Amino acid sequence: MPSSHRDKFIAQLAAAVSAGTFAKLTLGKYRGADPTVHNLHVRPVTLKSGPHLALVWRHATQDITKNLPPDEAIALLSGLIGADFLHAHLFAGNTVTQFESDPGGRSRLKTTAATAVAANTGHDREKQHLIPADSRWLRDLGVTNPHGQVREGMADKYRQIQKFAEVFQHLTAEAGLTAGQPLRIADMGSGKGYLTFALAGLLGGRAVIRGIESRPALVETCNRIARENEFTHLSFTAGQIGALPAPGTTDELDVLIALHACDTATDDALAYGLKAGARLLIVSPCCQKELRPQLTAPPVLAPALRHGIFQERQAEFVTDALRALLLEWAGYRTKVFEFISTEHTAKNLMISAIEAHAPGDPGRRDRLREFAAFYGIRTQRLATLLQLPLTV
Length: 392
Ligand SMILES: C[S@@+](CC[C@H](N)C(=O)[O-])C[C@H]1O[C@@H](n2cnc3c(N)ncnc32)[C@H](O)[C@@H]1O
Fold this sequence. Notes:
Layout: H1 5-19, E1 22-30, E2 37-47, E3 50-59, E4 63-68, H2 70-80, E5 85-92, E6 95-101, E7 107-113, H3 114-128, H4 136-140, H5 155-174, E8 183-188, H6 194-203, E9 207-213, H7 216-228, E10 234-238, E11 255-262, H8 265-275, E12 280-286, H9 308-329, E13 332-338, E14 349-355, H10 362-374, H11 381-385
Parallel strand pairs: 8-9, 8-11, 9-10, 11-12
Antiparallel strand pairs: 1-2, 1-5, 2-3, 3-4, 5-6, 6-7, 12-14, 13-14
The chain binds S-adenosylmethionine (SAM).
S-adenosylmethionine binds at residues 189-191, 194-195, 212-215, 240-242, 259-262, 265.
């Protein structure tokens, strides 16, 4: 028989999972060892191998997802509830059960009708979002409808916008680009402008933001929407990233972003950001094709690399790892992480770089050359732009 509030809560969770009424579980008030963890969300998923629970750990700059069989998931959650996470909300059937404990071991358990609680949590969740759902620009870009509701098919984009705003806020704080300080930002390959507008909305008049995009029609639309929203600090320019004139003193930047700019456009953007003196660089690379013809598999990997998908993943890994090593050589501290859970988009790898130390360290240079040589890489766009030969 369950005795404590915690045991009763876990028993309710197990019963809801086995009865198929389990909708979701959120764990908050984190008190564990990892300071980057915010909360943990759990929901049911059906995989080929049968029903599972998807556990999504939300960190400051990334989501980490684990799909576990129900029994394993419940065993893991039992150890977390009331320990690492002091609060837990279970949504099952038409009820919500709240378990709350404090570090002293006192706890309470309350079950409420789902409709009342869902309304509250929906409201709370909205308040936590950095970008208000009723922002006019979200509607103008087609993400929300006139009632501020996310349009069908735009949920992933909406979530990406919110997550990017959150990641941006953390990274600027980490880079010492403190709140209130004016920021000069360039967004290379700004596309339809979703993330560029997110920054404009987030930062208001504090930032001067320029989007660069090769498709003139998108530039025209984004400039019109910026005007209509009276974002006088936001503008878009048509152009190829790699063909931009070298930045002069009036082009200095604090932050360079390039999200999903294709293939070597990411390298062109990074090189521009470095030359423009950006303290923070944020890129989310896409379609890493450049190195594929050069990649030679070490003999032991050859049988595995018969498979095209592994070759593709290896090219992504080698390209992005080399970019991070080059940025470190250029004087930056890097982080490579998934900025949004893979269930929302496959294009989720992010590299952030914060100016941290003197550039040109020979030890770093030698190590990155060894890495390149291991994979048979002789040239890579960012290395070329930084005038660092990969072979000697
Ligand atoms: C996949 S979209 C991403 C748009 C936006 N950054 C986002 O993440 O929502 C990539 C955009 O980069 C633009 N692009 C690709 N290569 C470029 C280049 N060399 N110069 C300028 N724009 C480029 C494309 O036209 C496209 O609109």
